[in-house]
Amino acid sequence: MNKSDIRRLVLSLKPYYLIIFVCSLILLCDAAIKVRIQYGIQKVMDSVVNKNSSVFIKYLWLSIGLTALGMVTAYFSKYFSEKFCNLFNYNTRNKLISHVQELPVYVLKKYSSGDLISRINNDLPILVQFLNGSLQCVANLVLIILASAYMIYISPKLFLVTFILMPLSTLIYDKINRPVQEYSSKLMKDSSKVNDILQDVLSGMYVLKAFKLEKIFYKKFEDISKGIKFKNLKIDKLNAYLTPIFLIVKLAPQLIYITYGGYLAIHKEMSIGGLFAFSTLVFYVAGPVEIILNFIGSARGSIPAVKRIFEIIDLKLEENNKKDLKVNYESDPIEFENATFSYDGKNKVFQNISFKASKASYTALVGSSGIGKSTILKLICGFYNLDDGKIKVFGNDIADVNIKSVRKLVTYMSQESYLYPITISENIAMGKENVSMEEIIKAAKLANAHEFIEKLPSGYDTLIGEGGGGLSGGQCQRIALARMILKDAEIVLLDEPTAALDAKAEAILSETLEKITKNKTVIVVAHKLATIKNASNIIVFDKNGIIEMGTHKKLMEKKGAYRRLYENSFGANKGGLAI
């Protein structure tokens, strides 16, 4: 972990400085009490040898009192350290989730969902464990210093002989443990890949089964699992190398002080009580040294987790400090001015396109797949930024205003509108704040969804599966439509909303859309004849951008690209094929 990572981690702990200070103070008191108890025990043992009953009773009560006090400090040190870890974990998790939600879509697209989930669910607990270990490490370091100082006071010779091997053991341990960091980092990346595969399996279950892809995905999972197994075995093997070091740290001092300490006691260079206290203090040094060495190893494994969490926190959020959009009703609701866009900064999706969508107009975007029709809608929502040119909403360049104020005026519906795994009423209510049940039912009725919802076991309180599981495609679309109706935005963006539906469901949805979008500014990515026959403006795209604009009648009379598309697709199947 470099200095900048440490500094950032320390600064991120600023809200917890008080609880860290209290916890550290209690841990330090606990360490001092443990050492002080050994002083009392030394006096008790010496008084027994010297047959001094008054001294015996005095220091026996002192030792008992300190032991009771030590129980109290042990309780509070555990309580405050756990409280700190839980608070940090809770607040940081919420901060990460909130941060991810506020990231631009184009940033999120660079990360797989499995990777982001892994950073929150796997890397954060590793960081919390590291912080808890840091607190314990400080307390153990103080215990080592206090215990060592008292041992030197009892017998400098015995202390020197007992702990001459400790620095050597530490150096050997540190050298052996360095590769753990490298393997831990690789292990985290592989764990993210496993999450990605599971996400693909669950999200694409229908495709997986329909195309018999089980073996392919299992092979991918097996290959990554083998890599994880290998790295885990490597880490276990490296940790196994540390066991002899622990034995040296723990057993060598015992063998030495028993032999040499007895010799010093016989020659009156230390008391029997001092030897007895020294024997306990050895464990107050050897035990914490072992804990600190383990912490050093786990700290190296924590470095990748810290970096991966800061990497997410460093991602630039959507700008929300700009002025809010002010609606100018004299301007067109939507206007593109010489707009140029590319996803990667190199390959242009379209260049220098310009068009307007006037108030209460119905604009259809047509053209072959991959031309950029759906991208137009995503740009209006501010999911991506133009390379050049402008997009204006009611006279405001959306690059100059708070994008959230733009989205308040826009509602967006695609062919696969996502439903959350909550109740139907909650899904519909997401379109508006502080909504009543009456408003939800009214929106559902307008969307032709009320009838089938009422027939469900729990009606509007029916829990639906992730992504709308348990409902048909048409039912999901109608619930999504009710959500759109409830929002009642002035600009409606439709991305082939009927494309995945059968003829009956399409007819119901198309009829509903036509009713609820009156007096709205609608831009639709056209898929079937029913969605564009009454359009006030049809915009035809090809790989070079916009090539034709006009009504259905004018474009058919022009006998250009639109007529060819119509005759090749619509004319051949009366609206049944996509263009």
TrEMBL record:
> InterPro entries, from UniProt?
AAA+_ATPase, ABC1_TM_dom, ABC1_TM_sf, ABC_transporter-like_ATP-bd, ABC_transporter-like_CS, P-loop_NTPase, Type_1_exporter
Q: A single Gene Ontology molecular function, please?
A: ATP binding
Its protein name is ABC transporter ATP-binding protein
- The highest taxon in the source lineage is Bacteria
Record's subcellular location:
Cell membrane
Q: Tell me where in this chain the ABC transporter domain is found.
A: 334-568
Q: Which Pfam families match?
A: ABC_membrane, ABC_tran
Q: Where is the ABC transmembrane type-1 domain?
A: 21-301
Name the membrane topology term.
Multi-pass membrane protein
